[in-house]
Amino acid sequence: MLTDKFGRHINYLRLAVVDRCNLRCTYCMPENGLAWIKQDDLMTDEEMLSICTVFTDLGVDKIRITGGEPFVRKNCVSLIEKISELKGLTDLSLTTNGLLTEQYIPQLKAFGIKSVNLSLDTLDEDRFFKITRRKSFDKVMKTLDGLLKHHIKVKINTVVMDHQNIEDIIPLVQLTKELPVDVRFIEEMPFNGNNNSDITPKWTYPQIYNHIRDHFPGIKKLEDPKSSTSYNYKIPGFIGNIGIIAAYTRSFCGDCNRIRITPSGILRTCLYEGGGINLKDMIRSGVTDDELKNIIINSIHHKPKDGWEAEQQSLNASSIHQSMATIGG
After folding, report:
1. What percent of the chain has pLDDT over 90?
2. Which intervals hold domain Radical SAM core (predicted)?
3. Quick check: pTM over 0.85?
């Protein structure tokens, strides 16, 4: 099993299959998009499958497919199917914005995907357009309905932004009354693709929690699973649950079990890490699987203690302002 110098066991890989996205969310990228990774610099399906195989050989048993938006990648469904067949993999999940997802839900179910994170920052169609700069609210809601009909667990990810969607917090909490969903409120992070930005969120974990508690004073704390990124709660009598992710204040790093691979094949041991090792280039240079394993083992051994340390160690401070689409959501 992969272990870092702090004794944390690393068993969770987040694989970004593409940087491109069909939304332009204000907290992720500029309105005109990004300078997308050139096709030759993206990993091929075979390279992604090879990297995933190496990681499962090393004890990784959970993989999450992310982007960008995963389904923007050509043949993404075929790639997901191949990854689902890897020996040793016990948990394959997906993060999506829902625009292209509905048509693939039966296949995802057949591949054994039991959980999908669905990005949804508002339940208001007009605010959805202002945040995402696209009129696709109905597609996301159809995906939500389809996932629930196929009994796939849904976690709704909501980035909390001052003056943009605060009025949506309570309606989103209300979703858990009748639906078996987890709604997770996320502190806004500095990954908006603007190097000149200075994101210090006004709505942090305590403020989000207090706002919910003011409306639901009976809210109960749940036990958080090991390595959970969210602090989890339940409103008595409600079917679903609520989570709050302290993504900016980074108070969940202590037992982190995650690593990331960007669409261009860069291994990042922390979301806030500025550099990383390009595994794709190493594969193309002819390194063997055993050599690649040793490189990965050494890199993970030096995984930073937390996001603050990773940011301080970054050789390129502006790199923390990349788009989440570039890093891997």
Report:
1. 78
2. 5-223
3. yes
